[in-house]
Amino acid sequence: MVKLEEKLQHVIDERMDEFFDYLRLDSVSTQDRKIPETVQYVKQMLEKTGGEVQVLDDLGGNPVVYGYFPAGDKGNSEKTLLFYNHYDVQPEDPIDEWDSEPFVPTVREGILYCRGVADNKANLMVRLNAIEALLDSEEGLPCNVKFLIEGEEENGSPSLGAYLEKYADLFKSDACIWEFGGKDEEENYVIEAGIKGMAYFDLSVESADVDIHSSIGAVVDNAAWRLTQALASMRTADNQVLVEGFYDDITPPTDFEKEVVARKPFDAEKTQALYGLKHPLITKDLDWTPNEALAFYPTMTICGFISGYTGPGSKTVLPRAASAKLDCRIVPGQDPEKIHELIRAHLDKHGFEEVKLDLIKGQKAFRSDLTNGFVDVVVDSAQKAYGEQTEIVLSPNNAGTGPMYNFDKYLNLPVLSSGCGWANSRAHAPNESVRLKDFFEGSAHMAYLLQAFGK
Ligand SMILES: [Zn+2]
Fold first, then answer.
1. Which of 49, 127, 262, 275 is most buried by a 10 A CB count?
2. pLDDT band for position 1 (50/70/90)?
3. What's the CA gap between 258 and 254, in Å, rounded?
């Protein structure tokens, strides 16, 4: 009998050309490139693997591809695993910084380079590899498998919630594997059990109809001062957010979640060096550790600020307008609309009624229940695939943001990340890559995971 690992290698080799053709499709959602072609291609890939496919496009936006693979005769038809992926990719700019053509899959020293390979096309392929190898084995598919593959992830998934709501019965599953995941700088394999949310704001002040000679600053205030003072009123220099009620709705982490976070490695010096930081980490003034800050606490960040004259030399002007971008990475329990109300109330209370505040993007956070048995299934199967020498690091939630909350809201299931990326995958940047070794081990992880899940 041929071992599963050998079957996997065979499937990987056999489907490499097909995978490369998928990578060649420049499915850039923000620029509307090759979307219909890529939808057709994904449909074919799933059908070739043996799945039933529906292309959902009745709610607008780029189509959502649904795939279904029933459990085999010896499998557990009572259990269904959902894979979430996206077929769209980021634009390839800046093109000059690529060492090979962005949309020509190129292997150099065991590393496969192409736009979209890490985010997120290889992660779809490893899942299909695993399913095909299992279908070809004596045991067959150990459980039912569904896919939700969307085409707007790189655009903030504006239509995903509507599709999940309408098709909740179709996508109904017991657990979900998220689109991304992989290894960190230390070669630890990181599994995220959740994700932070986001409240993103535009702020602006207009203080006059025209820019004014700065000598008039003797009697006239200006927009740049007003906006910097408004912003400064919201956060102290040592990173305490002063907006009343800002921290109130945070769901307190459980003891177990705290324990899991305490086990995570964090190298402050390395972080300093990585970014060339000129100041100590802000957590030095806070009552919580860097890992706790990354997982459990919301942030408030000025992402950009524009006002007045910023060219060479001097121009003595009193700017009539100022604007800023502000993001808050929020945690479970917090609501973007509520954060909006709290900041509005803060500005009004402190005499900044004229500051315009618009919530331009809101997304709630989500964290899976770490005591759910699915966590062990994902962790143990990762250990088996990546070997005893690899430390498997569980993280209650990622510090970034994604549309995970909608999966819980409409499907009510645990969601964990797992993918074949590495520390240098450079998602969204030039020379995006996946290591072929991780591609194989990632395929094995998905196969072991399906086996363990079906039990
Ligand atoms: Zn991305």
1. 127
2. low
3. 6
| Distance between Cα 75 and ligand 1 center (Å) | 34
| Rounded CA separation 437/421 (Å) | 11
Average pLDDT for residues 108-120, to the nearest whole number? 98
Tell me: the pLDDT tens digits for 347-384? 999 999 999 999 999 999 999 999 999 999 999 999 99
| Architecture field, domain 197-250+298-363 | 2-Layer Sandwich (3.30)
**From ligand 1's centre to the CA of 153, what distance in Å?**
7
Q: How far is the CA of 248 from the centre of ligand 1 (A)?
A: 31
How far does residue 236's CA lie from ligand 1's centre (Å)? Answer: 32
Question: Are the CB atoms for 414 and 368 separated by under 8 Å?
Answer: yes
Closest CA to 19 of 436, 455, 428, 353: 436
Distance 87 CA to ligand 1 centre (A): 10
Within the chain, all domains assigned CATH 3.40.630.10 are found at 4-193+368-454
Triad 405, 116, 409: Cα angle to 5° = 10
Class of domain 4-193+368-454: alpha beta
Give me ligand 1 centre to Cα 331, in Å: 20
